[in-house]
Design brief:
25% strand; 302 residues; twelve-stranded mixed beta sheet; 9 helices; alpha/beta
Length: 302
């Protein structure tokens, strides 16, 4: 089934080249189908790259999906054109009267800041509170996961001695949980962050369940007791080359940064990294859309 996206979105042609079934809004309106309405709160600086990564995953299931992109009203994005934001994004004020079947809150390169020091924190809090009653299921990624754990469950983050960057092995604590149905006992996933959360605090919280963790990267997938909130501390959506681009960016800034672990073949930065996490990424997004959005959301919101 197709993913429905705004007309003329730059990612459209790239998705078509990858044989992802996309449908522009005009055509989708002529079909008598109840699509899933997904809100993507994109906090990443390079928004077009994140759009492509997420749309690729949302468009690879049998479910028809309508996507709405949300941007902050209280913070001006510096790495994307004003025209792009005005053409394809909206703000909370324009969607708060609506109901959404699913929502994705992305990461943001601000994890070393205290939550309350982020200049759009109050706006994010309002949106997270609104999602409790207006969204069936919310998928939180990286900093978005840390923000959810802090705001909803009182679990803070702590700085790491060095950046957690690379591809790490993960295990599943309970393979019967629908979100990780079909996962291998050990699977790989990318991480790229300077902070982490306590596994002990997550496991001790009565309203949280730890689904996956890594001996090297720590907590990975956490789900709320009511299955409404899913927190993923890594970046399953990343392309094969994303960590390489971040590594080059950090070097250009003059930062002292290690080579991403388990990433470049033989730690040779001239060699192309392999994507070893793609199948589990698609599986997780497919499971989320099927079990926690499609099968849980009402056909008609009251």
């Amino acid at each position: 089934m197709p993913i429905n996206i705004p007309k003329n979105l730059p990612a459209t042609e790239l998705l078509k080249e990858e044989k992802i079934f996309v449908m522009e809004e005009d055509r989708s309106k002529s079909q008598n189908i109840r699509p899933l309405n997904i809100l993507i709160f994109n906090l990443m600086p390079e928004k077009e790259k994140t759009e492509l990564q997420l749309l690729r995953l949302l468009g690879n299931t049998p479910l028809q999906v309508n996507v709405t992109f949300l941007n902050t009203a209280t913070h001006v994005s510096k790495n994307v054109s004003k025209t792009h934001l005005e053409s394809f994004y909206t703000t909370f004020e324009h969607v708060k009267h609506r109901r959404f079947d699913g929502m994705i809150i992305t990461g943001a390169p601000i994890e070393l800041m205290e939550f309350e020091d982020v200049n759009y924190w109050n706006e994010i809090v309002s949106i997270m509170d609104w999602s409790k009653t207006s969204v069936t299921s919310v998928l939180h990624i990286c900093w978005g996961a840390q923000a959810a754990l802090y705001h909803h469950y009182g679990i803070g983050k702590f700085p790491l001695a060095k950046k957690c960057s690379g591809i790490y092995d993960h295990t599943i604590t309970d393979p019967t949980v629908k979100l990780v149905r079909g996962f291998n006992d050990i699977f790989t996933a990318p991480h790229s962050r300077n902070t982490s959360v306590s596994r002990e605090e997550v496991e001790a919280h009565p309203k949280l369940k730890l689904l996956s963790a890594s001996s090297d990267a720590g907590v990975f997938i956490v789900m709320s007791e009511d299955e409404k909130h899913i927190m993923i501390t890594g970046h399953l959506e990343y392309d094969a080359h994303t960590l390489a681009e971040e590594y080059s960016r950090d070097l250009a800034k003059g930062l002292t940064i290690d080579i991403p672990e388990n990433y470049f073949p033989n730690d040779d930065t001239s060699k192309q990294p392999n994507n070893t996490w793609r199948s589990h990424t698609h599986l997780l997004f497919s499971n989320w859309l099927n079990y926690y959005v499609y099968q849980e959301t009402p056909f008609e919101w009251e």
